[in-house]
Specification:
- This protein is of the alpha+beta class.
- It has one domain.
- Helix content is 19%, strand content 31%.
- The chain contains five helices and 24 strands.
- The strands form seven sheets. Strands 5-6-7-12-8-11 form a six-stranded mixed β-sheet, with helices on one face. A six-stranded mixed β-sheet has the order 13-14-15-20-18-19, covered by helices on one side.
- β6 and β7 form a beta hairpin.
- The longest helix is centred in the last third of the chain and has 22 residues.
- The two termini are 19 Å apart.
- The relative contact order is 0.12.
Length: 399
């Protein structure tokens, strides 16, 4: 992530009266300019504020992995998410979203947004009051974010992250994840055209504490929602998994003049619709790699992305249920994931109690300009691991 290449205008300079935001319209661009609507990086939490002071940028949002919002006071008006998901590796990292397009901020109906000419990064959180079930809370949260995103001119959901505690506990005769799915399904079915084929990529992870917290990426232009040939579409799961199927796509592809972004949903050790390799974190990890491989190949073959070529810039986030499994999972992923990518390990709970980990990611195929003004990109290749043995050299490779 090249934070130094973002705009040199301080983010606070783009804080404007929300009533004036519709006047901020299309930026006149050279079609070969190196622009980006959004970029993401994991940066050391202790260095975040000094970094923003030294390299001022247009900040779309910040995702922190701790309980307290106290450390967010110096981040200005940008949306900030604080998640109670303990980090399992290295110095504390913060997820930083930036853009080199002008950014404005807006708050209404409990939705805190940052917007540029192409995308909106938004945050909403709702407390679960006594006597109110999670499906009702989830429905209200989604209705708010959908109404606000549409009103602001960003009707297309690209990616949604959902976090709430006690995800596998029972509530009113249903698992809390099942109640969450029911509320989300109702809101999206009512609001999205071409439901369920217009569903965005998604993640739902259990935290140690906190209210329901959702952050999302929406856009003026629709993305391409992608399914995995190794898995049943989540929205077509049989009723055994709950009264309403999970409402998300396996990935969303966003393509623009500056390149492509593949926003990969939380991916678990599920084949078809069945959990695989119960009680074996190593084999679950390898099965997830198979699923990621299949998803990427499907994207390349069906959606106009150059086969086997992705920019070296990639981020992966790994949620692990039991910290005792961290070393096993980490050793395998060191062999499977590119050494130059950013990887963040967090302790969280998966949507099914038998699932021990989940992996999500963002892959970029960003184009830049060489001396002859030809659009080029750096490339990586992904290969399949063997489930029967510990993988050695069969991993993503730069080419």
């Amino acid at each position: 992530m090249e934070i130094g290449r973002v705009s040199q205008a301080k983010s606070k300079r783009w804080v404007v009266d929300p009533r004036t935001w519709p006047k901020v319209r299309s930026v006149q661009r050279d079609p070969t300019s190196n622009i980006h609507a959004f970029r993401i990086a994991y940066v050391e939490a202790a260095q975040l504020e000094p970094l923003l002071e030294a390299l001022p940028s247009n900040v779309l949002g910040v995702v922190r992995h701790d309980r307290s919002p106290e450390g967010s006071n110096g981040l200005g008006a940008c949306p900030v998410v604080c998640l109670d998901l303990p980090q399992l590796n290295g110095a504390p990292l913060t997820e930083l979203w930036t853009s080199n397009l002008p950014v404005i901020y807006h708050q209404a109906e409990g939705i805190h947004c940052a917007m540029n000419d192409e995308v909106l990064f938004g945050v909403v959180q709702l407390e679960e009051r006594p006597g109110t079930l999670l499906d009702s809370v989830t429905y209200n949260a989604y209705r708010r974010l959908l109404i606000q995103a549409r009103a602001l001119g960003y009707p297309h959901l690209l990616r949604v992250w959902n976090y709430f505690p006690r995800i596998n506990c029972e509530s009113g005769g249903l698992e809390r994840y099942q109640r969450f799915c029911a509320g989300r399904h109702q809101a999206l079915a009512e609001s999205l055209s071409d439901f369920p084929r217009s569903l965005p990529a998604g993640t739902a992870v259990g935290t140690r504490s906190g209210p329901l917290k959702i952050h999302f990426l929406a856009a003026k232009q629709s993305g391409t929602h992608i399914e995995n040939p190794r898995q049943v579409c989540a929205y077509e799961y049989p009723p055994v998994y709950g009264p309403r199927s999970p409402s998300f796509a396996r990935a969303t592809l966003r393509q623009s003049i500056s390149g492509s972004h593949m926003l990969i949903s939380g991916t678990a050790s599920v084949v078809g619709h069945v959990s695989a390799h119960i009680d074996d974190p190593g084999k679950q990890t390898l099965e997830i790699i198979h699923n990621l491989n299949a998803l990427i190949v499907q994207t390349e073959q069906l959606h106009g992305v150059t086969r086997g070529q992705w920019c070296g810039q990639a981020l992966f986030k790994i949620y692990i249920r039991h910290p005792a499994h961290f070393a096993t999972i980490c050793d395998i992923l060191k062999e499977q994931l590119p050494s130059h990518t950013q990887v963040l390990y967090l302790q969280g709970e998966m949507c099914r109690s038998e699932l021990l980990l989940e992996i999500e990611g963002i892959l970029s195929q960003e184009k830049s300009i060489n001396e002859n003004h030809t659009m080029v990109s750096s490339r990586v290749r992904i290969q399949q691991p063997a489930l029967s043995q510990h993988p050695k050299s069969d991993k993503f490779r730069a080419v």
